[in-house]
Target: Glucose-6-phosphate isomerase
Amino acid sequence: MITWNNLDTLDSYKELSKASRVNLAEVMSGENGAERVKNYSIPMAEGFSYNYAAKAVDDDVLDALVKLAKEAQLAEKFKALYNGEVVNTGEKRLVLHHMTRGQLGDAVNADGVDKRAFYVEQQNRIADFANKVHAGEITNAAGEKFTTVVQIGIGGSDLGPRAMYLALENWAKKNNTFKMEAKFISNVDPDDAAAVLNSIDVAHSIFVLVSKSGTTLETLTNESFVKDALKKAGLDASKHMIAVTSETSPLAKSDDYLAAFFMDDYIGGRFSSTSAVGGAVLSLAFGPEVFAQFLEGAAAEDKLSANEDVLKNPEMLDALIGVYERNVLGYPCTAVLPYSQALNRFPAHLQQLDMESNGKSVNRFGEPVSYPTGPVIFGEPGTNGQHSFYQLLHQGTDIVPLQFVGFKNNQIGTDVVIQDSTSQQKLCANVAAQIVAFACGKSDENRNKNFEGGRPSSIIIGDQVNPGSLGALLAHFENKIMFQGFLWNVNSFDQEGVQLGKVLAKRVLAHETDGALKVFSDLLNI
Ligand SMILES: O=P(O)(O)OC[C@H]1O[C@](O)(CO)[C@@H](O)[C@@H]1O
Model:
């Protein structure tokens, strides 16, 4: 029997709050630190490991976290979710994104269909379509091959697929699976669409309109913007566009598209990278086999997330440590710092994934909670971030927990030895150095040069960013965020907080404004 209780009502949470604080600088120094790095590590899928040696936890804190996981029924709640319970209470929906990449539990029937079969069917339809485009069986009106794919979408219909595309672009080129260049139009700023359109040959481009709801202002505006450009180029837009949407959306049955592929209401936009939303652009860009490998990596990590043993479940432990940092230690932010240029836009995707999911002030029953929930998430790839905001991370007045991601190998393989080390070695040396610098600090009589240390971090270490590892990494963060939502007792799968601004913007455009809204409208010349 599952019970959904607020975090602060749980006995194990009260016990956790009383656990003695760990002196991170002390425990990470010398031989003790070396032992921690060896022991505080959990294997993940695709050759990754999650290392939490530099987090401010010890065996007592970990014991308390294990008890918290049990009392909060994290494993049972995940099981209920993947077995098709209505976990998205706000919208009264199932939450099935795991099913786009595997079947973790029971078959789930909804809307009269087996949902796993539905997602696989969409993947197969996309694969077939992509193969025909690559083979020149689906072409433009002149019978010429499409060379570029342009995704039009915003939020979850943009950030995840864009981050995944960028992560695999160089890998695919190196591994001869690069089929088509992809571009993305998201912002309603006309300069976004115009710049993309100026950079491509529209006659050889296929546009993927992605909108789960089929009603998003920015996306529909950009669709019209693109159609206008196609018309001006003398092209039939319906021969250049496909749609990815839910079967119930206004786009689903339109003749405006060459083909339509479907997700459904049980896949949240920000959790849709492994559905048709990511599937269409990634299969067109890299081929369906690459997309399938990406799904396999995610499915393998999902399996680990289902493990009841917290110390063998990287996502559950990561979530628990995050809640300890947020609610007991009182840290307001978390930075995600991938030491990989391929993961350039991964933090941007995680910003939506995490903050749109857990940025809530009421629990899943709509009652206010009296404790902090989701932290502010931000990040940049290393080493670039080091030369930007790391000053605050090292010496600022707030402690910001850090999530590093590092890889032993790069993607392209070109590297040069300069002053006895390769660039890849320099990259990896920096991430190792940062972890220890943050944790241990360095005392200096000059206070300006003093580093307190005690700044916690974890690192996920992998071999290389490739389709499988990228899938596993994505699933890690999706599942961590889900477990944190369970702990905070919030509904991580709705996003009512984005509605008010949309309603007011519509009023501005309809000139139905007064007060401050009217003055701002005038100032902005609307
Ligand atoms: O895919 P859609 O329905 O166009 O929505 C796009 C995005 O807009 C949001 O609803 C936020 O406004 C996100 O949750 C979603 O990912």
The chain has three domains: 7-96+296-495, 97-294, 496-526. The pocket of 6-O-phosphono-beta-D-fructofuranose is lined by residues 154-157, 211-213, 216, 219, 269-270, 356, 495, 498 (CB under 6 Å).
